[in-house]
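Sat 14:20. Reprocessing the chain from the morning session after the first attempt stalled halfway. Input below, unchanged.
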Amino acid sequence: MNSSRRNFIQNSVMGTAGLGLGIASTTEVSASTLPEAVAPETTVDVDVLVVGGGTAGTIAAIQAGRAGVSVLLMERNSQLGGTMTTGGVAFPGLFDAWGKQIIAGIGWELVKECVALDEGQLPDFAKVPQRHWQNQVYINQFLYAILAEEKCTAAGVEIAYYEFPQAVTKIGDGWQVDCVGFGTRRRVRCKQVVDCTGGAEVVGLLGLPRLSEQERQPGSFLFMLGEAHEPGRNQIHRLYVHGADSTNSRTATVANLTGRKAILNKVRQEQKRLMHLQPETGFRESYRIEGETLITVQDYTSGRLFDDAICYAFYPVDLHTKSGVKPQALKPGTVPTIPLRALVPKGSRDLLVAGRCVSSDRLANSGLRVQASCMGMGQAAGGTAALAAKLGTTPLEVPLRQIHELLRSHDAIIPGDA
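Finished this time. Tokens:
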């Protein structure tokens, strides 16, 4: 620092101190040095590659890591958590149905620790609420993101932010995935891929069939006008962005620009301070896979117990349209299940998905896409991928009994268990 700049800073500090103003204290940490980071190209070999570090992908990666395999978690944004953190829907559910908990495991572990660290409160699942949203959990989205990183690190998961796949090629008994980030070209060689991108982007790169609708459900842009947002305590204001489409970077850009423009107009019209703004639109739907099994709305609303069920789901049928949303509650006692085959793209090997791209029709998906269910799917996919990598086989050839045993050992609730 040159002497004139040092004198300016010193004089500025003295001047503000004389006015009774304080300078915020600064603490410091040092990031570890990566000797190889200057090289633009890198190659890594792992057992499992999880693409997408959102609600499902984070849990999938942690479960695979805890199962004892090497894992790379790739996320194109700057943090984990997806819809709950970057999208701001820090109100996950539903973990319970009809007076008892039906989704637990690693996702619930993370939620509980987040609420405890934030000195928040959990709902009483023994009480059946009059309205489904009354048993949602308030989450501090900022804490959740960094707790998720801590758990990934503890599980031995390597995280790669700002990167995404460009090409996926089958090689021998695994995959070669060529990825790009700014200043980085990464080649990943792995045995199993878990696609948790929301829109099944890896599945799309492979040319496997995906399902979509001509008209998308509106996205939500979350913000707060006039009063401070208290993470983990209150809900944020929401703006519907009709036509929001997360198909690619161009359509997502349009959705974000549209939402921010509308919020700026509201600031001017209502003459209130903008106190909080999420960095991007929360998208409800894009692509779903065509899996080995497709979950229909009849399967969902009847609570069908699939032969290969790996987790429960619970939420009203919740289709958002231009006229709003009218949730269709499930009948008392009904608890839907999700089969493993709905996480397997039709005709594929060594590939799984988890999250809102699960194989399902549109109405079933409107209930399946919520965060607790995505966590359950993520844990099941991560565990199955880990077992397939260890056994040298493909996910559908892993004995279901072994999958269930692994998930139980990590506190997941298996459909059909007493």
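Residues 219-277 form one domain.
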